[in-house]
Amino acid sequence: MKARGWDVLERVRAGERLVFDGGYGTMLFAAGLANGACPELWNDTHADVVRAIHQGYFDAGSQIVETNTFGGTRLKLDEYRIGDRTRELNAKGARLARAAAPAGGYIAGSIGPTSRLPLDYALDAGVTDEEYLETFREQAEALAEGGVDLFAVETMMFPQECTAAVRACKAVADLPVMATMFFQYEENNDRDRTMWGESPAEVAKNLIAAGADVVGMNCGRGPDRAIVIIREMRQVTDAPLVAYPNAGLPVTTGDTVTYELGPEEMAREYPALLDAGCDIVGACCGSNPEHIRRIRDVVRGRSPRK
Ligand SMILES: [Zn+2]
User: Fold this and answer.
1) Does CATH place domain 6-300 in 3.40.50.2300?
2) Contact 166/175 with Cβ under 8 angstroms?
């Protein structure tokens, strides 16, 4: 029997648009996560808080909710000297999200960057493709063990790291993989590029070649750029596309960081994002369940994609 995560692809291919979730960082900080503390550790120490955040997104209309495991590779957890808890914290993260899911809700295992540079760019000991593969494989295995329906490889900066994560997911489980990269808007050139200069079209082609089932963008500048990025990706692929941009740029006042776009302002951009050919939409940094509720309303008000 095929894992139920594959339903996501079938639904999208049939023309349905799906709603992803919103940011976790802001929610965790609001709940008391200290600056510099390890968010994944809360899957153990503050399980109720994490579960409540998942619940909030499902209640707001998210059909796919992510696990709190963005920094859950051993390479990243080693920064907090808890690399030996990799398996436990990822499996717990998956179970927490699962516990909050209504019947029919999907859980995506979040896999973010290791924060370690690839060999080609690092000045000192960079990470080889094999090391990336190994660390992502360990995380993906634990997430699958905890019961995720699909994987969300996200906020990736380097092509090597992103493709290694996609391949690792594909190697450990027969589950769909969403892969999204972080794009910077280059104002002088009026274009969007990854940190290492890849265009949206190149990213889409590379990630699909690596085995990703859904490709797209997340984080970055905001929905206005997401529209342009998705449009460029749509020109080169028929694959399902996903976008969950930030709620605009961060605005720092003293010690507090807020984001440019409130729920209503942000949702106003989503009809154009759907028109650009996006199949799965959500939001990233600076968003909360209220943003998702408004985005859900936009999606509900639209006819399916032809
Ligand atoms: Zn973000």
Assistant:
1) no
2) no
